[in-house]
């Protein structure tokens, strides 16, 4: 499904080899609902909270634990848990549950589901801790970790050198880059090859790496005498808001991680499609405060890989193509 590149200027990397050109492996969906029903139900569940850690963002219904119930504590890993966490007996985890299939809210409006959520729950159990989940805003997760409100954040974070300055990351997945979600048939012929998206309304969710990618592409358009992306991109608080904007013709394309874009297209009964992909993998990392917990989480990841739980979780959600074999601390930068 990759689209042919065009070249405007061989000296400009954004036009010579667009960061969005390439191919992907589509995520497998677990159900097929109309986009209006999907986005409306998720938006209702997530509500309009103003920040991470607010009491009304805690999900009392817990998480789906189908593949985590049999995960047993590993004494050698329990000994690595910092005393302040061990004495509490629970692992406080935060995610922004609007990024299906990675993390989202189930139809009951309160249960957090997705493979990120199940993986985090499995990690807590390996460490002999009770999983405690909070549903919060993506752009507030790292500040919340720094302030000591949470123990870890698992919310499709791309590992970057800039983020590593303030938090530690334990890598756990290789996401196949960014994808451009458009309406079925791609009526405007959009792609990130050459100038095909110059002057086009492009959207992304707040705090995502796609916001910066759009700005870079817009600058490349302007440098070649083409119209830039209006406003250097439209930024929405939530991924679901961006998808609703696409549905209602308030934007022309939504940029997000490839598994998420593919899932949105499948869930919408083919009302959307992917117009462009890239070859640049994005390393996902579990974000942690720099307090020593990273070693324990890395150990838990290695144990889950060794006993097969990690692969089963990815297979369940159709994401095994991005599986890793050796989680690192502060590595695999995107």
Number of strands: 13
Question: Helix/strand/pairing class, anyone?
Answer: alpha/beta
Note the run of SSEs as H and E: HHHHEEEEHEHEHEEEHEHEHEEHH
The residue fraction in helices comes out at 25-40%
Determine Rg (CA atoms, Å): 20 Å
In whole angstroms, how far apart are the ends? 23 Å
Low-confidence stretches: 1-61
Strand content: 15-25%
Major beta-sheet overview:
5 strands, mixed
Figure out the total of helices: 12
Overall shape: elongated
* Side-by-side strand order of the widest sheet: 5-1-6-13-7
Integer average pLDDT: 80
Please provide a written account of the structure:
This protein is an alpha/beta fold. Helix content is 31%, strand content 18%. β9, α8 and β10 form a beta-alpha-beta unit. The protein is elongated.
SSE blueprint and pairings:
Layout: H1 13-16, H2 35-46, H3 75-78, H4 83-88, E1 90-95, E2 98-99, E3 103-105, E4 112-113, H5 115-126, E5 130-135, H6 141-146, E6 152-153, H7 161-164, E7 168-175, E8 178-183, E9 202-205, H8 209-223, E10 234-236, H9 239-247, E11 253-257, H10 258-267, E12 272-276, E13 282-288, H11 293-306, H12 309-316
Helix pairs in contact: 2-9, 5-11, 5-12
Question: What labels describe this entry?
Answer:
single chain; 334 residues; alpha/beta; five-stranded mixed sheet; disordered N terminus
TL;DR?
By secondary structure, the chain is α/β, with parallel strands linked by helices. The chain is built from twelve helices and 13 strands.
């Amino acid at each position: 499904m990759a689209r042919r590149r065009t070249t405007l200027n061989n000296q400009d990397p954004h036009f010579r080899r667009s960061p969005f050109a390439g191919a992907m492996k589509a995520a497998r969906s677990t159900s097929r609902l109309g986009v209006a029903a999907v986005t409306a139900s998720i938006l209702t569940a997530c509500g309009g909270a103003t920040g991470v850690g607010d009491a009304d963002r805690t999900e009392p219904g817990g998480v789906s634990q189908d593949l985590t119930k049999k995960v047993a504590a590993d004494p050698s890993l329990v000994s690595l848990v910092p005393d302040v966490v061990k004495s509490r007996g629970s692992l406080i985890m935060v995610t922004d549950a609007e990024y299906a299939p990675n993390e989202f809210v189930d139809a009951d409006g309160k249960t957090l589901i997705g493979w990120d959520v199940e993986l985090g729950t499995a990690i807590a159990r390996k460490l002999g801790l009770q999983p405690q989940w909070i549903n919060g805003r993506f752009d507030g997760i790292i500040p919340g970790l720094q302030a000591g409100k949470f123990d870890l954040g698992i919310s499709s974070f791309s590992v970057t050198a800039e983020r590593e300055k303030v938090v530690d990351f334990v890598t756990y997945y290789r996401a196949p880059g960014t994808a451009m979600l458009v309406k079925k048939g791609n009526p405007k012929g959009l792609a990130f090859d050459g100038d095909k998206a110059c002057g086009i309304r492009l959207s992304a969710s707040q705090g995502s790496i796609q916001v910066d990618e759009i700005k870079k592409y817009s600058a490349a358009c302007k440098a070649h005498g083409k119209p830039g992306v209006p406003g250097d991109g439209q930024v929405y608080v939530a991924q679901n808001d961006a998808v609703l904007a696409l549905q209602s013709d308030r934007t022309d394309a939504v940029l997000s991680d490839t598994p998420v874009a593919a899932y949105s297209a499948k869930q919408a009964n083919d009302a959307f499609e992917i117009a462009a992909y890239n070859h640049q993998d994005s390393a996902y990392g579990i974000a942690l405060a720099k307090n020593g917990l990273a070693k324990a989480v890395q150990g838990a990841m290695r144990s889950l890989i060794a006993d097969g739980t990690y692969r089963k979780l990815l297979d369940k959600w159709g994401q095994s193509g991005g599986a890793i074999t050796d989680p690192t601390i502060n590595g695999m930068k995107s």
